[in-house]
């Protein structure tokens, strides 16, 4: 904390530039400034909130202006590369827990049951392939890492991010161009696979620990011992137990809420606070017993809104949009401020600019897109190749990746190699920044591209001359003005004035049928219940050339 004084003749003002004061002032500056131009950014420029918040965090962070430096808020050991950062772990865990809970609430009625096959295909084979592909790319491009260490780093960027997924599935572009089925499956996948990242993290982690840690007894340091512990600790205790507890917590919360509502004991204003409290309870209780709190939050949220009443109430309240705004502003500004830019030109770790840029491009291209397109016919929620390309491309890497980095750094034995400790943060942080940037500008870039294509076609058609122009005129469809121009009489359709049905008449064909129809109507009068479909003054357009005045 820095304190200085400004002295005036009659008084002295104390200037307190503490980290908290600067952080609050900077955060409020962003929120208020963004709020003033949010419509232009979101609905005209189609830029995502996380992108703007991350860029703002980079600008005010130590890399540019130096107004905010989150590293100064941490204990000295947490500032060092390769050590667990408790502050980052807590912030990312709370953010993801709230987001995945409301992602579960936002899904339609009984969605996990109805789209079970689609979720299984996206969560198991797609995640497994993405994990192996990213591990292979990291192993080939970053020197000094074993393949198991590369798989450990790859596990961090395997899950998609629910915070970034919200920016894709909401807003004007999503409502106009993305079907509800595609939006729902993106939300469901991003909510579920955050918790399912644990098996991909702990399999290579157990393999590394078996070589260099005393946590594995000597008889269990073989492959069978590693697999057995992985199945018991990860799949049974963390994944399965968290699913069961999430279903139970959501069911009890839904029934108790319904009972209190029927007995007029519930204040409607506390509904959203009730849901937020449930997400905190899942985080706290599952954290106490050491199970998968993120997966529990998602399952509890969907179980809580199983009958769709809570989803509708949450949409009517509009509180989730406020939560998204505040979380996006806070966490992505923080991420932008803590990206270790100094670590991207380090010959000791092998992370140099060309390697990290090539790695980011390859991961964006080959992490999900080819594999979703290859198996999309086995995913009922995806009905076309276009939707498969959209879902395969929009699998953003975000807050969950940084969360798993801190989980890994907290679990790695002290005697493990320094190379994996010193490379996991720079690699994952750069992948997160690249994903935020690329996925954040994909929609506006596609809009600009489509406008360019449309303009090119317009200029091409306008610039036609000679035989091409005459050919296009000769082959264009015949319009009603052409018929009027050549003097061909066209019959007026006749409708019944009471029933509104069209009446077919033997007089409605051949030249001069319009005059016949008019004569029939004039003879029968309005009591006949017939009315011409076009006002009478338009009949001059159907006169023969000899009748048209010059």
Automatic annotation (TrEMBL):
**Spans through the membrane:** 20-39, 51-68, 88-107, 119-139, 234-253, 273-301, 322-344, 356-376, 388-407, 427-449
Provide a GO CC annotation, any one. plasma membrane
| Any one Gene Ontology molecular-function term assigned to this protein's record | sodium:proton antiporter activity
| Record-level GO BP terms | proton export across plasma membrane; regulation of membrane potential; sodium ion export across plasma membrane
Database matches in InterPro entries: Cation/H_exchanger_TM, Na+/H+_antiporter_fungi, Na+/solute_symporter_sf
- What residue spans carry the Polar residues bias annotation? 541-550
Q: Could you tell me where this protein is found in the cell? A: Membrane
Q: Main location per UniProt?
A: membrane
Residue ranges for the region (Disordered) are 497-550
Per UniProt, the keywords (alphabetical) are: Membrane, Transmembrane, Transmembrane helix
The Cation/H+ exchanger transmembrane domain is annotated at 37-444
User: Which superkingdom heads the taxonomic lineage of this protein's source?
Assistant: Eukaryota
Its topology with respect to the membrane? Multi-pass membrane protein
Specify the protein name: Cation/H+ exchanger transmembrane domain-containing protein
Q: Which organism is it from?
A: Rhizoctonia solani
């Amino acid at each position: 904390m820095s304190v200085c004084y400004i002295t005036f003749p009659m008084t002295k003002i104390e200037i307190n530039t503490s980290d908290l004061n600067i952080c609050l002032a900077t955060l409020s500056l962003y929120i208020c400034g963004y709020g003033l131009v949010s419509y232009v950014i979101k609905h005209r420029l189609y830029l995502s909130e996380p992108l703007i918040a991350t860029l703002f965090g980079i600008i005010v962070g130590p890399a540019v202006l130096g107004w905010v430096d989150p590293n100064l808020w941490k204990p000295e050991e947490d500032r060092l590369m390769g050590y667990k950062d408790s502050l980052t772990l807590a912030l990312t865990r709370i953010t993801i827990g709230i987001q995945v809970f409301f992602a579960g609430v936002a899904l339609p009625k009984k969605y996990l049951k109805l789209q079970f096959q689609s979720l299984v295909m996206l969560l198991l084979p797609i995640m497994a392939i993405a994990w192996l592909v990213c591990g292979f790319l990291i192993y080939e491009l970053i020197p000094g890492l074993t393949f198991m260490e590369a798989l450990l780093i790859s596990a961090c960027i395997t899950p998609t991010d629910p915070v970034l997924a919200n920016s894709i599935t909401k807003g004007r572009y999503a409502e106009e161009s993305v079907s509800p089925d595609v939006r729902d499956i993106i939300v469901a996948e991003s909510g579920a696979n955050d918790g399912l990242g644990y098996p991909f993290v702990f399999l290579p982690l157990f393999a590394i620990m078996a070589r260099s840690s005393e946590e594995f007894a000597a008889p269990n340091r073989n492959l069978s011992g590693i697999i057995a512990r992985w199945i018991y600790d990860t799949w049974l205790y963390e994944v399965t137990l968290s699913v069961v507890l999430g279903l139970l917590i959501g069911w009890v919360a839904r029934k108790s809420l319904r009972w209190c509502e029927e007995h007029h004991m519930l204040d409607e204003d506390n509904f959203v606070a009730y849901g937020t409290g449930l997400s905190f309870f899942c985080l706290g209780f599952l954290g106490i017993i050491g199970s998968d709190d993120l997966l529990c939050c998602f399952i509890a949220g969907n179980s809580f809104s199983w009958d769709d009443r809570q989803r509708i109430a949450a949409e009517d309240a509009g509180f989730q949009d406020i939560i998204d705004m505040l979380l996006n502003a806070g966490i992505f500004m923080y991420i932008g401020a803590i990206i270790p830019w100094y670590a991207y030109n380090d010959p000791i770790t092998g992370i140099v600019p060309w390697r990290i840029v090539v790695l980011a491009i390859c991961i964006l291209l080959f992490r999900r897109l080819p594999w979703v397109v290859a198996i999309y016919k086995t995913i009922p929620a995806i009905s076309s190749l276009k939707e498969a390309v959209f879902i395969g491309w929009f699998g953003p890497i975000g807050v969950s990746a940084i969360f798993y980095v801190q989980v890994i750094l907290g679990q790695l034995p002290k005697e493990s190699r320094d190379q994996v400790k010193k490379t996991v943060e720079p690699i994952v942080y750069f992948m997160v920044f690249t994903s935020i940037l690329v996925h954040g500008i994909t929609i506006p870039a596609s809009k600009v591209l489509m406008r360019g294509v449309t303009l090119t076609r317009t200029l091409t058609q306008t610039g036609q001359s000679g035989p091409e122009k005459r050919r296009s005129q000769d082959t264009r469809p015949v319009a009603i003005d052409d018929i009027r121009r050549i003097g061909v009489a066209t019959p007026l359709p006749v409708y019944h004035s009471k029933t509104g049905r069209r009446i077919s008449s033997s007089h409605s064909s051949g030249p001069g049928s319009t005059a016949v129809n008019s004569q029939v109507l004039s003879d029968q009068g309005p009591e006949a219940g017939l009315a011409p479909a076009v006002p009478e003054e338009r009949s001059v357009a159907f006169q023969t050339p000899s009748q048209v005045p010059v």
